[in-house]
Design brief:
- By secondary structure, the protein is of the alpha/beta class.
- It folds into 2 domains: 145 residues, Periplasmic binding protein-like II (D-Maltodextrin-Binding Protein, domain 2); 152 residues, D-Maltodextrin-Binding Protein, domain 2 (3-Layer(aba) Sandwich).
- The protein has 15 helices and 11 strands.
- Helix 2 runs antiparallel to helix 12, helix 3 runs parallel beside helix 4 and helix 6 packs across helix 7.
- The protein starts with 16 loop residues before the first helix and ends with a helix.
- Its main location: periplasm.
């Protein structure tokens, strides 16, 4: 990815408070400078297609308002979170990554593409929006699915993607795992038994969350979709308000999909300042409202309150309570791990 030769050290950059809804990005300041053209690549996970289509346009407009001579083009690539992380490792020239879980960004940090302290560089552990895992069912809920035990009843087919390639699938898996642990006083044997039965009810494993949604919504496979809340709300409200209902289980997981710039790449591309600004835009009031519009839960309390009618209260547990991503990845999703033993 090439940009015009341009020394950012010779210009001082500002996205004005009026344009951003308050505050400058990453402490850069205004000044007169030669116009520049920037191209950014955001490598993202599956369910964010509509979200970043709006974010990319809004950010380009905000940057142009603050720097009238500049042009910014942002392109976003989508896929299963794990597969997307591997693509960046293999050379896809991402300026920023907005992935489904912290482990996938940690992997890039371990390989030297991203600074080890990436999660401390932005608010809320570099997580601009949260979500959770819910059930999407056919209109009227014909199989009377209300909670996790109903997923393993005879005659119920469950749609969920592959945890080896999809971050959303790992959230689905861990939501079920955590619920089972809590039901059985922390017994991993009981949780394994539940997950093994659950995956016998899964007829197909798509590679990403959006593929699983398409299997359920468009191909009419299965009776219930385990889904990011934003995917379920989009299907129930926008795609088929007369076709689907959402069931919120008694307990589920707090999904925290984080973001980071890819340090090695932005330095090579000359895009570090604009990439930082792009990520901080996600935390601005405008960026938070775009997230809420696409059914991602804002981390800004004021914006969350504004959209409170969209997001029901849910009882959640987090990844840390299950041991953290490093342990979970090794124990469950590595080759020969618990998932492989259950799905053999």
């Amino acid at each position: 990815m090439k940009n015009k030769d341009f020394s950012l050290s010779r210009r001082r950059l500002l996205v004005g408070a009026a344009a951003l809804g308050g505050g400058a990005f990453f402490g850069v300041h205004a000044g007169q400078a030669q116009a520049a053209s920037f191209n950014l690549l955001n490598v993202s996970y599956d369910p964010t297609r509509e979200l970043y289509a709006d974010v990319d346009k809004a950010f380009a407009n905000v940057w142009h308002q603050a720097h009238p001579g500049d042009s910014v083009t942002v392109k976003t690539a989508h896929g299963g979170s794990g597969a997307q992380a591997r693509s960046v490792l293999e050379g896809v020239p991402a300026d920023v990554v907005t992935l489904g879980l912290a482990y996938d960004i940690d992997l890039l940090a371990q390989k030297g593409l991203i600074a080890p302290d990436w999660q401390t560089r932005l608010p809320h552990n570099s997580t601009p929006y949260t979500s959770t895992i819910v059930f999407l069912v056919r209109k009227g809920n014909p199989k009377n699915i209300k909670d996790w035990p109903d997923l393993v009843r005879d005659g119920v087919q469950v749609i969920t993607p592959n945890p080896k390639t999809s971050g959303g699938a790992r959230w689905n898996y861990l939501a079920a795992w955590g619920w089972a642990l809590h039901q059985h006083n922390g017994s991993e044997d009981a949780a394994k038994t539940y997950l093994k039965i659950l995956f016998k009810h899964v007829p197909v494993l798509d590679t990403g969350a959006r593929g699983a949604t398409n299997s359920f919504v468009q191909r009419h496979l299965g009776d219930v979709l385990l889904a990011w809340e934003d995917e379920a709300l989009m299907a129930a409200r926008d795609i088929g308000p007369d076709q689907f209902d959402i069931v919120v289980p008694s307990q589920t997981i707090l999904a925290e999909p984080p973001v980071s710039l890819v340090d090695k790449n932005v330095k090579a591309h000359g895009t570090e300042a604009v990439a930082k600004a792009y990520l901080e835009f996600l935390f601005s009031p405008e960026g938070q409202k775009i997230g809420a519009k696409h059914y991602f839960r804002p981390v800004d309390p004021a914006v969350l309150a504004e959209y409170g009618q969209v997001f029901p209260n849910v009882e959640t547990f987090d990844v840390a309570s299950l041991g953290g991503w490093t342990k979970l990845q090794k124990d469950h999703f590595s080759n020969g791990g618990i998932f492989d033993s259950l799905y053999r």
